[in-house]
User: What shape does this take?
Amino acid sequence: MKRTIVRAMGRVVCLVGIATANGQAAQQQRPQLAEEVFKNVQIIKGIPVDEFMDTMGMFAAATNMNCVDCHTSDSTESWENFAKETPLKQTARRMLLMVDAINKQNFKGVRSVTCYTCHHGDRRPKQIPSLVVQYSAPIEDPNEIDVFSNAGGLSADQIFAKYLQALGGAERLASLTSFVAKGTYSGYDTDQAKAAIEIYAKAPAQRTTIVHAPFGDSVRVYDGRAAWIASPDKPLPLIPLTGGNLEGAKIEAMVSFPTPIKQAFNQWRVTTTTIDDREVTVLQGTNPRQPPVNFYFDQSGLLVRLVRLADTAIGRVPTQIDYGDYREVSGVKLPFRWTATWTDGQSTTQLTEVQANVSIDAAKFGRPAPAPPPRTK
Ligand code: HEC
Ligand code: HEC
Assistant: This one.
């Protein structure tokens, strides 16, 4: 896994560079590595904690196993218990080495083969071809787009123009510069119970969300440059977001003030597909050395889905956000509901009230305080 280490180190150095340029203490910015935080990491070393947790999401998604299946049933009680050895952890480590060797020997070290390539959501990969699969109509996954036909004839510019128009038009969008929202959040981390959520957003791209969860306040901040999660249910009281997660936090913040999105990507490609039998137009934005981001627009021009990818040491993992319930706030349509789905969880946010253009204390977008230990649920 030397490649992993070298690659991750490159990223750390780069982060430090940015931090120094911004005049912040480089020390503060260097994210802690997985092996510095966890007790029994033997192979997936040299990567920050957020990326490490994404590799666990890849494991779960690829094998359709829950965290506790590979770890111990008491691991839900404390993060320490995840360090315990189990036979399945050992198998998974063997698999990691095998996949690394396959990619090195056959694909020049590019991560062409991942856990998902063989497992495909099965704990035991299949050996025998399925006639049912072969002879039934293919199930299309709108997130798996590889043909960009420019179907529909609209250019990326036209699709953006339609989007901004559907939201209320350039002028109204320009006059919305901040909002404070309240609503409810429910997800795997709240055991689907509804918890109060507050959102603070400021143009061009600052965003803080606070979920008042049963275990304590779960805080996410994107300050326009850096992002953090401070939540009592996480393995670290303050997790800086890196790589694809940092890019993702930025895009999600920009969606509230979308005019600059078009300029935020180097290249755009267009295609169409369907989501739940509804035709949607897809814009895929790419930047150099970044995974692509897909934006899905319905017939009225509104954004209904966002799919972004994060690179991890063992392959890319997706996050999907579905937007809906658009309502007007001072002349601009904002999504009042969204569902985020990723490899180790799903959550739905429903807003109940939004106040536009209120002044928000700059401290709201500062680095959050580390979360206290969890309150018992
Ligand atoms: C397919 C088996 C598998 C699944 C599923 C899995 N893990 Fe792991 N987990 C591992 C292995 C293997 C390691 C050790 C990796 C290494 O040695 O580099 C590990 C390590 C960890 C660690 C570090 C523990 C320590 O202190 O050393 C944490 C935390 C963790 N996993 C959390 C999770 C969570 C949360 C999930 C569910 C999203 C999950 N894991 C799903 C196999 C799995
Ligand atoms: C080249 C194909 C291939 C790839 C890639 C692959 N696996 Fe496997 N995996 C297998 C096969 C085959 C088995 C054995 C299934 C059986 O015993 O029937 C297996 C078994 C496992 C098992 C044990 C399941 C059980 O119930 O005993 C785990 C856990 C596992 N793989 C995890 C992973 C992880 C994590 C990755 C990615 C790092 C991965 N695999 C990548 C082919 C693969």
Notes: The pocket of heme C (ligand 2) is lined by residues 59, 62-63, 88, 91-92, 95-96, 99, 113, 115, 117-119, 123-125, 314 (CB under 6 Å). Residues 1-27 have pLDDT under 50 and may be disordered. Residues 36 and 286 are 33 Å apart (CA to CA).
